[in-house]
Amino acid sequence: MTLPVHLRHDETFVLNLGPQHPATHGVLRVKLTMDGEYIVKAEPVLGYIHRMHEKLAEAGTYPQFMPNTARMDYLHALAFNHGYALAVEKAAGIEVPERAEYIRVITVELNRIASHLLWWAAFLLDLGGFTPLLYAFDDREQIIDLLERVTGSRLTYCYMRFGGVYNDIDDEFITGTRDFITRLRSRMPRMYHDLVTHNIILIKRIKDIGFISEEQCRRYGATGPVARGSGINYDVRKNEPYSVYQEFDFDVPVYSECDSMARYMVRMDEIEQSLRIIEQALDKLPDGPVMAKKVPKILKPGLGYHYSAVETARGSLGHMLVCNGDKNPYKLKLRSPTFSNLSLYGEVAEGMLLADALAFMGSLDLVIPEIDR
Amino acid sequence: MSVIESVKAAIEKVVPFSETVIPADPAGEGEEQQPDQVVHSAGAKEVDFAKTGCSLDVLCTAEQILDVAHALDGEQLFIESIAGVDWPKEDQIEVVYTFSHFQDSDVRVMVRLRVPRSEPKVPTISKVFSGADWHERETYDFYGVEFTDHPNLIRILLPEDADFYPLRKDYMP
């Protein structure tokens, strides 16, 4: 990338952004070396909300770790539930009833929409628009109410079990979800796209800003909307179909502009794709139990290495599980998507204006507890 | 040639394929196995993707890792994660790398190597995969694995003055 001005490295100053800065959405600190308004060097400093979940996983039994999964990515907690459940089920060889997998997909996709809505609200708040937050939270509240009905909690879910889910969905949830789909679809064109997406102020702020090349995504291992905004057609739901995703007809939105606007558009289109998945899952929802029979109370998966990936709202989440036949996991490595997505920040932010770098940071959709684990 | 075939060919130039690797056992049956039954020896092996989530399991030495990384970089794989595993009985620390592919489905290469616990030194691959920089810092942070030639090997998640490696099995808070 060519720098817009000649940066004089002898006259720089260090600007401390965070850890308590509203634009970092949590406790991320970025050490910026500035030349006037331009960034010479950006170094994210992590660890302010580090809780060592990986050690906690080794200290308890397999089911005991399930509530912790939701404390990492609190915006798309059900995908973390799902990923951990799939990883242990794969290791222990537990079969999940079909209805349970459908319910998992419905709730995970609802949660994905909620996550994208909150990102949208917070991103626009960073850029100075307050009204979108109220619209997005109105819609997000509907999802949270629906999920509270089946899962029992509003944010940090512990809904999935090895072998299924703990609670069946009822007719009220199904009709409520169908009403929500109609409602969100009717609001999307006017309240989301006319008001914001086609807004010239937004376009001027994020178009051609924050260029991430396809090669950078590969070198840094960026996934999710960040990779899909750089023209990479990679979605774990399509590339390594897990659960019952292969039953549904949905598209993976890919934009090749590589800028913040492309990442914005990917997430907006994904909301519609998630609605399509939920609609099909509700139509096809089979009858039957929601928990597998004969799941042992104490799981003791045999010796081995297991890797399991799922697609969260932010990218590919991996669980690397090392089992040794004990009742506790021997090792659980969590590959969190935003950790890799943020690692390219320093390289991309170099030479940017500070205001643009903050808009770019918002377009990465950071969730700090998931980075710090 | 499919992606997995060419990845195999590229790895074979560095690490020969062999049958010495003990594959992951199906869970919940048979007698309990002890972790010390995993014998580390160099060699690569195809594994069942449905069972392990990986298509290739490559066991190499610390000296080979840079060549393996170059081979995988040439095949356009991306870095997914780097993790450590502590094996105190064997007095070894294992470093597990996973790589995956953006276009081709079901291509995941797990690369494993072991270094002695008393002197865990592994060459860095951050010059090949820039994303490895942070993953290696995390592994250093939790296990004390020293990645030689790393540009900035400092603590990443723990406080900078920490003097312990918390994910080692003998660490007690």
Q: What can you tell me about this protein's structure?
A:
The complex is a heterodimer of chains A (373) and B (173). Chain A has 373 residues and is of the alpha+beta class. In chain A, 48% of the residues lie in helices and 13% in strands. Chain A has helices at residues 53-59, 66-69, 77-92, 98-126, 131-151, 171-197, 200-206, 214-220, 225-228, 236-239, 260-284, 337-343, 345-349, 354-363, 368-372; strands spanning 13-17, 29-35, 38-45, 160-161, 164-165, 304-312, 315-323, 331-335. In chain A, strands 1-2-3 form a 3-stranded antiparallel β-sheet. In chain A, strand 7 (315-323) and strand 8 (331-335) form a beta hairpin. The longest helix of chain A is centred in the N-terminal third of the chain and has 29 residues, at 98-126. Chain B has 173 residues and is of the alpha/beta class. Chain B has one domain: Beta Polymerase, domain 2. Chain B has a 5-stranded mixed β-sheet, covered by helices on one side. Chain B has a two-stranded parallel sheet with strand order 6-7. Chain B is globular, with a radius of gyration of 16 Å. Residues 23-40 of chain B have low confidence and may be disordered. The chains are: A alpha+beta (373), B alpha/beta (173). The interface between A and B is large, with 55 and 52 residues.
